Amino acid sequence: MLSEKEIDYNTEIRLTYKRSIPARRSARISDVARAAGVSVATVSRAVSAPEKLSEGTRRRVLAAIDELGYTPNTLARQLRVGSSRMILVVVPRRSNPPFFSEVLRGVDVTLVEAGYVLITGYMEGEDRDLRLIELATSGHLAGLMTTSGKLPQVNGRSILDGGLPAVALCADPGVKGMPAVLIDDEAAARSQARHLLELGHRRIFYVTGPAGNYNETARHRGIVAELTAAGLYPEALVECPGDYVFEAGHRGAEAYLALADRPSAVICSNDECAVAFMKTIRSAGLTIPGDLSLIGFDGIEFADYCEPALTTIAQPRFELGATAAKLLVEMISGVPPSVDLDAQNRSFLDVDLKVRGSTAAPPAGQRD
Amino acid sequence: MLSEKEIDYNTEIRLTYKRSIPARRSARISDVARAAGVSVATVSRAVSAPEKLSEGTRRRVLAAIDELGYTPNTLARQLRVGSSRMILVVVPRRSNPPFFSEVLRGVDVTLVEAGYVLITGYMEGEDRDLRLIELATSGHLAGLMTTSGKLPQVNGRSILDGGLPAVALCADPGVKGMPAVLIDDEAAARSQARHLLELGHRRIFYVTGPAGNYNETARHRGIVAELTAAGLYPEALVECPGDYVFEAGHRGAEAYLALADRPSAVICSNDECAVAFMKTIRSAGLTIPGDLSLIGFDGIEFADYCEPALTTIAQPRFELGATAAKLLVEMISGVPPSVDLDAQNRSFLDVDLKVRGSTAAPPAGQRD
DNA sequence: CTGAAAGCGCTAACAC
DNA sequence: GTGTTAGCGCTTTCAG
After folding, report:
1. Chain B neighbours among A 312-331 (CB < 8 Å)?
2. Which of A209, A224, A225, B16 has the greatest CB tally within 10 Å of its CB?
3. Which nucleotide is nearest to A42 (CA to C1')?
4. For residues A275 and A312, what is the distance between their CA atoms, to the nearest angstrom?
5. Going along A17-111, which residue ranges are E strands?
6. Interface-testing mutation among A15, A158, A318, with chain B (most B C-beta atoms within 10 A)
7. Nearest-CB residue to B138 (from A73, A161, A163)
8. What residues does the HTH lacI-type domain cover (chains A, B) (predicted)?
9. Do domains A84-183+318-349 and A185-315+352-366 have the same CATH topology?
């Protein structure tokens, strides 16, 4: 272990002078071999297959390892064995932190437990995507995970070109054979609409997600399906374009308030958007659920702490991440998947419609 | 680029059978050399120093690279040159997603722009810390960043043992010579208390952060200092232990409500905690800021969307991350830091006390 | 049970 | 300008 003085030395020097002092080299396998009086092969075995060594040799080598503070250079090991233990997870930029952070926690916990290291790569624009593609083909990676319906792709090159084992998470890019772990967005959105219809609402204002987005498309389909089944489509649906962020909720609410004939129910594409919608509505003097019912999507913690608490679709965030990670590890190690997959290699996890204070029957005048 | 059939093939096979098909090997430098009719050295130059090649050769090699979809194996390169471009940022587990995700975005944007790859490692418990320490000494890393006052450390081994360039972010672990980029927590907390005193409040209820936490310690010191300066300490301060999460805010509010003689002002250790505090208080029928004033810390977006909007200390989240990343890159490349550092190698960024609806003068009966 | 030696893919002297 | 070659630190046959 470094003494405090040494730490100071290293950091201070590097901070101030131009490479005047080379980094202190850490012990290599040959150092350990020399110290223990054995060959490098023996040291290698002491680390990866200690049972192959005699009691005495093993003890001697292990002591030397400890003594020198030796850690194998994984870079070299990986180059030699031709496989790494790093996994890249691709996340769209600025994406709903309270939602994705919990999904990624599920990924992280599972992956680390299985001995992998997680690299998070944010998508945003072509430059960025190109770096990700290069990373994916650079030999560093053991596997790939993506949380977006669109894969990084720039002039003909795709992130899948490396041929890495890959799984999709929270969205299905629809690549043939690439498994996906997600919820059934369409069914979930249907249940949102059904909940509102059951309460007696007959028209819905919908602040959408970004056009073309996988989840948005599926959810939109669900809402339409439910309204259609109730014989209310298309008159009953008023759409307002949004993109999953606070600002969209705010603007959505302004659009709603400007309406001459306001629907009594509102669906926001996610909780973040719904929270902002709620705030703007209340600032305008309307009450929820007195004047209108509001429902979100995701089930982030903040939804519990609005006033009133937000009715929402709670996604199994941690479990989504954990399941996808488990599946990926199985693919990498070549064992059959323990996760149930349908014919398209998809695994759907259950959601929970959490009914809380933001939804209720419509005001008397608006019931049919 | 893979045809769709190949993608399917790869994934499907791996998913189903036990390593029956080896991964398709990607092109190596020697493949390109052969295809272009040059030596490997020339290919290497075409990638890293194209100006050293003649027009014709360069074109020929580049064409071959493109043709074969060659990406250099960074693992091999790094092993050879002895340095990597990966940076580990250590984050405490489950830590305030809306706050840290924005800080990390600042880190990520800056680092990627400088050509680095970011690895996020969560701390939690010794096992985990040991993995991080091993990662830090495995040859993979170019630098290290930590967002916690406590560094991963297990039986004598510290994450700094590898001698990597390292910078602290949002907290100062107090390692001699290790630079830190953060805000002045003490001064910020003083300004919170001062704001409340200026409004006329004379007693403060404080839901603390976790005992021993760097930020908590500094903030506590600030509150005490301000109250002391006003001649109100210690009588004026009622403390309630918390730990930065929703639940702490909820429990803090319950403790507050149970008080016989309630202070007219409340400081919560962070916004998340304050949001929960607010919710519980309102559910109990008290009004904010009518019955009590409430102030948070961090400046996350959700603070804007409470009812009323939360008065808080807005930290420059993105800038904190970006500044720390910039400094780290400079340390790695050996150039003098462009970031202003004090004698202890710290750089303090400015905060902003955002006064909003949750703070006001105390109710008439409670003024002095 | 242990050692010698080849080589993973790449870069950087050093020659020509 | 371009090629030859010696390793970076490690694992893994293959001998003994």
Report:
1. 331
2. A209
3. C2
4. 11
5. 86-92
6. A15
7. A73
8. 27-81
9. yes
Count other C-beta atoms under 10 Å from residue A164's C-beta.
Answer: 23
Determine contact: B157 vs chain A, CB below 8 A: yes
- HSE (side-chain half, CA atoms, 13 Å) at B128: 16
CB of A95 less than 8 A from some CB of B: no
Each residue's pLDDT expressed in tens, for chain B with a length of 368 residues: 333 333 333 444 344 333 333 445 688 999 999 999 999 999 999 999 999 999 999 999 999 999 998 999 999 999 999 888 999 999 988 778 999 999 999 999 999 999 899 998 988 878 888 889 989 988 889 999 999 999 998 888 899 988 899 999 999 999 988 999 999 999 999 999 999 999 999 999 999 999 999 999 999 999 999 999 999 999 999 999 999 999 999 999 999 999 999 999 999 999 999 999 999 999 999 999 999 999 999 999 999 999 899 999 999 999 999 999 999 999 998 899 999 999 999 999 999 999 999 999 999 876 55
Q: Helix, strand, or coil here: B60?
A: helix
Residue of A nearest to B155 (CA): A1
The pTM assigned to this predicted structure is 0.90
Write down the CATH superfamily of domain A84-183+318-349. Response regulator (3.40.50.2300)
**Which chain B residues are within 8 Å of A72, Cβ to Cβ?**
138
Q: Is the CB of A276 inside 8 Å of chain B's CB atoms?
A: yes
Q: Which CATH architecture has domain A185-315+352-366?
A: 3-Layer(aba) Sandwich (3.40)
Q: Considering only alpha carbons, which residue of chain A is nearest residue B86?
A: A119
Q: Distance (Å) from the C-alpha of residue B192 to the closest C-alpha of chain A?
A: 23
Measured in angstroms, the CA of A231 and the nearest CA of chain B are apart by 36
HEC-encoded secondary structure of B236-283:
CEEEECCCCCHHHHHHHHHHHHCCCCCCCEEEECCHHHHHHHHHHHHH
Fold of B4-72: 434 Repressor (Amino-terminal Domain) (1.10.260)
Please tell me the distance in Å from B215's CA to the nearest CA on chain A.
22
- The full set of domain ranges for chain A reads 4-72, 84-183+318-349, 185-315+352-366
What is the C-alpha separation between B107 and B124, in angstroms, rounded?
A: 21
